[in-house]
Amino acid sequence: MATLPAGWTPAPGALAGRTVLITGATGGLGRASALACAAAGATIVLLGRKVSGLEKLYDEIEALGAPTPAIYPLNLEGATPRDYEDLADTIARECGGLQGVVHAAAHFTGLQPAVEIKPEEWMRSLQVNLNGPFLLTQAVLPLLQQQSDASVVFVHDDPSRVSRSFWGAYGVAKAALAGLVSILHDETENSPVRIHGLLPPPMRTALRRMGYFGENTMDRPEPSEFAPAVVYLLCADGAASRGQTLDLRAG
After folding, report:
1. Which family does it belong to (predicted)?
2. Which contacts (CB < 8 Å, 24+ apart) does range 5-14 have?
């Protein structure tokens, strides 16, 4: 585990000249990350299911005076390997390259005993939370390897919570994702591509409300408080945390 350096804040233009793809861009941490990375100078490729939400976020980023973002609607539930290949081809053609990926998309429908999970829901959860991040990373890795410095950020969830009863396919996928980060790091350790995990604390998100419906989620911090950590992992400073999970829970 790694921690964010004390007092670290993004330097002006920390991500200038970098193109960053963010999945789940209209969700809690995805949206906050998109805004923070854009403010740091990155060109953001916004990937999500609903065009209306992506367009609203596009307008917010433009209002910052940041580089013009791009919108890429894609539903990870039904995406195929060919869809990810097309995404990589589009980024190469329209953006000229890729320096960062943030896997912020998540699928969780609530707590449920494992024996009651419908097969299609099990497959849907694994598709969004595990298969999608792997297939997307596999598709864009050649683009990332062309850069002098690139990074991929996988958003984790607290294993002490989601490895317990009723977390089902979501918990299984998050455990497997941690293994994927370790494997990818070993395979890219001597390349320009850095692999990172990011473990945020409980946040004020829809996913949190689904898992803790008796809790007042408004007491939890906004995802925007932790978006600077995403910028850290994507910029050159993040090299110090290569191959590790950045644990934000203590802060």
Report:
1. Belongs to the short-chain dehydrogenases/reductases (SDR) family.
2. 5/232, 5/237, 5/240, 8/228, 8/232, 8/237, 9/228, 10/36, 10/39, 10/40, 10/228, 10/231, 10/232, 10/235, 11/235, 12/41, 13/40, 13/41, 14/40, 14/41, 14/231, 14/235, 14/236, 14/237
